[in-house]
Amino acid sequence: MFKMNAPALIGILMSAAVIQGCAPRQVTRVDEKQQIDISGRWNNTDSRLTAEEMIASALGENWLSEFTQQHGGKQPVVIVGMVANKSHEHIDAETFIKDMERTFVTTRKVRLVQGGAKREELRGERADQQKNASVSTMKKWGLEVGADYMLQGSINAIVDSHKRQMVVYYQVDLELTDLQSNEVKWIGNKKIAKYVKN
Amino acid sequence: MFISVRQWKWWLPLALAIPFFCSCRTYNSAVAPYYQAVSQGRFDEASTQLDKARFFRYGRNKLLFNMEKGKTAFLQGRYHESNLYFNAADSILSGYRGSRILDQTLGLVVNPAMQIYQGEDFERLLIHYYKSVNYLQLHQLEDAEVEARRISLGNYALNDRKKNNDKKYSNDAFSLIVQGIVYESAGDVNNAFISYRNAADIFLKSPDRRYYGVDMPAQLQADLLRTADQLGFQQEVQYYEQQFGRVYHRPADNDGGSVLVFWENGLAPVKAESNFFFTLTERGPGNFVFTDPNSRIFIPFDFNLFPRDSCDRLRRHLEAFRVAFPSYVEQPLYYTAADIQRDSTFSTTLEKVEDVNQLAFRTLQERFLKEMGLALTRLAIKKLAEYEIRKNDEVAGELFNLISLLAEKADTRNWQSLPHSIYYSRIPLKKGDNKITLTLKGKDNTQKVEFNVVGNGRLQTLHYASLQKS
């Protein structure tokens, strides 16, 4: 009777397994602060470290105390401008900028006004209210809070690679400029270097 | 040869199974009516043929079915429907696809055409091109941006698979150009700049500034310089002016925006089956290699899979291995170039931005040794299994050998409704109606196609496919 020899069959199956290898997909929840580097590209840890460094520097340096002293204890109002990404990767600056903004708002040391597309949307809503909202609840034009400072920045990267080795260096710079005088009041900086070997 | 009743029990089902595994037809001939309808521009009929073809009902061909359905719907201008199929194809590629051991075993024991179709690397990335254009046509800019981000993931995966090897297809310049166009359409100039720059850098890395049959498009150079200038990256403008050997002139303001025209020309090559013969020889003590009759190709024997003595056994019993391997056959072009005019005031020539034909040929060539090694391993495994069976039953061993021989078949599946090449150009628009005339030029024929595009101040996309073969 036709009977396949067991070692032969096992051999076939094992070879297939050796060639490809296989494991069903497994998903494990991890702590958001756990450092897991997989590809060597910009990741959540880089964003978190940048946010931590920038927040500590922005809230800890002289510009803040100088402003409150000069303005009778008032907090400065900041608007976030563009963070220009000049690196080779698509890096979303919003992840660390949002962390900064949240700290500004929760610590109440810095006031924040909305900028960019969101500001346009707000103005659109206000315009709509002029037609459709009751007069008592309608929000008026011209009462927006003017920002004292604008936060702008840039992300740069240098990649040095040879065969299977690569060094990636990221430099994130953020700066706060006085909107009245154009004077730069604070510069925050985070440098991240990674060595990747394939 | 006398066959007992007991053995007939095996002959019969095996005889019935042989045609199933060993059909000589290639994928192209199996679904010929569909491809004929596509190449002749009968897209509605093509879609019906796709639904009818039994070949596409097998689970292993699900990806191909979705890619072909997505492309047909795209050609019919059914962008939403097209993306439903492409999204299904995309999720097949990124999702969990059942037991890979079983799939790989099937490929090894029978032939690779029985495995789940995973798509060629460039096919996987072209899904994003079609999805992006679909979303842009539907004015779903946020979805298009999601697609643009998926292009990065696709490129990273390709890069990792090819271990960042510059000599292989480890990056895809066209998908990065598409990514830039999507970001620019959505108003994200910074990300558009990064995409254009990454695409240009791929061309610049090569000494002749060509990448898989495509010269660095002047359109890409213009887009890169313009986005850098818009962002105020003057240092980058100067650097790339030097690299491209051109001086950047800020374009005149045009209130109508612009339209990016993609022209898909011809059809991708089809896969045929080629047979290669190898013998197992010893090169130096204990170093076994498979070599072709002309001794030009040497593929080392994989000792991770077999004990050393199995090589001797294989050599004692075997004279030659026949390996069926896919090879591409080019689909000759009907049109070879195209011009585009706007209202007789603006005229330009479309530039080649993706040469699917050359990409297919070259990527298959690049993985020849790896694939051939796998095919030879497959044969060697079958041979060893045959010896084991022979020990117990000579007739069964003979049968197994026969089936192995007949089942040896190359995987000739590929996404054949892809174009031979893709061309593009960006046309400035005036506000309101713009008459765009595309002039397709062949050896002895010229065809004019007209479109009306309403200039709205933004970047729009337009596509036209001429899939005829000469």
UniProtKB/TrEMBL annotation, chain B:
Stated name of the protein: Tetratricopeptide repeat protein
Gene3D superfamilies in alphabetical order: Tetratricopeptide repeat domain (1.25.40.10)
UniProt entry keywords in alphabetical sequence: Signal
Organism, as annotated: Chitinophaga oryzae
InterPro entries: TPR-like_helical_dom_sf
Signal peptide as annotated in the record: 1-17
Record has Signal as a keyword: yes
The organism's taxonomic lineage, starting at the top: Bacteria, Pseudomonadati, Bacteroidota, Chitinophagia, Chitinophagales
